[in-house]
Write a structure and sequence with these properties.
Blueprint: E1 2-10, H1 16-32, E2 36-52, E3 55-67, H2 69-81, E4 85-92
Antiparallel strand pairs: 1-3, 1-4, 2-3
Length: 96
Amino acid sequence: MRPYEVMYILQPTLSAEEQTALVDRFNDLITSMGGTVEKVDRWERRQLAYEIKRCRDGYYVVVEFQGDPALETEMDRQMKLTEPLLRHMIVRRDEH
């Protein structure tokens, strides 16, 4: 298994329950494909550097997880299809 980190930005119009549902959905995807969630860091609402999908701010979520390349590919695919997600980035962490 490889260490990954994903950061994604949720639309500012989402309620707390909708945000939690999306975070849980992606965490469940990781565990259902044999990965492990190590850390979930939810930031407060922050202003974006530039407008994305007509939004000037959003809620940031950073998740550190372990998984295989197939999990990373599927997670990227699912995130691209999720409408309330403004932007996401998945990176492979160093194994120090």
